[in-house]
């Protein structure tokens, strides 16, 4: 009995775990004019195994007396040249400045380098730069959150297929909103047709379940054949259960039919009494 009940549990676990696949903040999909544009800044591309993510753990751009460090879709990692500024309480603290956020800014205020957290990976939002021309690239906006609600960083990842440029410029708008840009092959979209050339999530889920089920039957049959010495139809795991499946399906449909028929007769009888 325990062996028979294992199969529904097996399929249930697959159904529960598959939707919780690794969902990167760097993934984005945009529909436009019967086409689907897919971006993944963390996927490997030619000459860039980490995608648009910095292999050093951070990007650095400087303008006037302002220095910006950021990492796309992940936390900053400083294996060398860490930030040296005061005010890192919400981004790793004074001894680990910059290690708990995705973007950190240093400004010289009255002779002191003062830090400001501009964003976290968990609060990043991704969108296309130009909805009329989705292939141009995407923009990643990082929000500082409750600590600095008026601060943010927008990084434009512009499609450039052959090489990487930037970040070179840093602009400021409003009170504490900064922007920079990066030209990178990862900013180029993969465009697929929106009329069924790609697999839908239900089809993918169904194929995965069928593959897992087939692997279970094959593995179980080989084990029972070679290790237990079982031959014939009994070599199939839970063969008694599978033999009863057609009867169970028939009984289920029969029960539904009887209920539907009984409901229809009840409605007819009620209508006759009213007339």
Automatic annotation (TrEMBL):
Q: Which residues cross the membrane?
A: 198-218
**Single GO cellular component term:** Golgi membrane
Q: How does it sit in the membrane?
A: Single-pass membrane protein
Going by the entry's taxonomy, the superkingdom of the source organism is recorded as Eukaryota
Q: Does the keyword Transmembrane helix apply?
A: yes
Signal peptide, first to last residue: 1-24
Q: Does the keyword Zinc apply?
A: no
Q: Which Pfam families match?
A: ATG27
Entry keywords, A to Z = Membrane, Signal, Transmembrane, Transmembrane helix
Chief place of localization? membrane
Localization per Swiss-Prot or TrEMBL: Membrane
Q: What is this protein called?
A: Autophagy-related protein 27
């Amino acid at each position: 009995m325990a062996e028979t009940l294992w199969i529904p549990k097996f399929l249930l676990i697959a159904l529960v775990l598959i939707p919780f696949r690794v969902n990167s903040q760097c993934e984005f999909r945009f529909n436009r004019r019967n086409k689907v544009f897919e971006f993944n800044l963390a996927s490997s591309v030619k000459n860039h195994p980490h995608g648009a993510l910095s292999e050093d753990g951070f990007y650095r751009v400087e303008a006037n007396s302002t220095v910006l460090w950021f990492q796309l879709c992940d936390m900053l990692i400083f294996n060398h040249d860490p930030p040296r500024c005061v005010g890192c309480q919400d981004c790793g603290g004074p001894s680990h400045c910059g290690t708990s956020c995705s973007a950190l800014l240093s400004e010289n205020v009255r002779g002191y380098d003062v830090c400001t957290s501009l964003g976290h990976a968990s609060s990043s939002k991704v969108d296309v730069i130009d909805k009329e021309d989705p292939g141009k690239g995407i923009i990643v906006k990082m929000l500082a959150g409750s600590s600095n609600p008026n601060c943010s960083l927008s990084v434009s990842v512009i499609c450039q297929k052959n090489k990487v440029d930037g970040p070179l410029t840093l602009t400021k708008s409003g009170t504490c909103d900064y922007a920079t840009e990066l030209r990178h092959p990862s900013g180029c979209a993969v465009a697929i047709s929106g009329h069924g050339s790609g697999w839908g999530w239900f089809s993918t889920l169904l194929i995965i379940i069928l593959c897992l089920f087939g692997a279970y039957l094959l593995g179980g049959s080989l084990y029972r054949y070679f290790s237990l010495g079982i031959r014939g139809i009994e070599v199939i795991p839970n063969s008694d259960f599978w033999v009863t499946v057609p009867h169970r399906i028939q009984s289920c449909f029969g029960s539904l039919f009887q209920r539907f028929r009984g409901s229809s007769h009840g409605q007819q009888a009620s209508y006759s009494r009213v007339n």
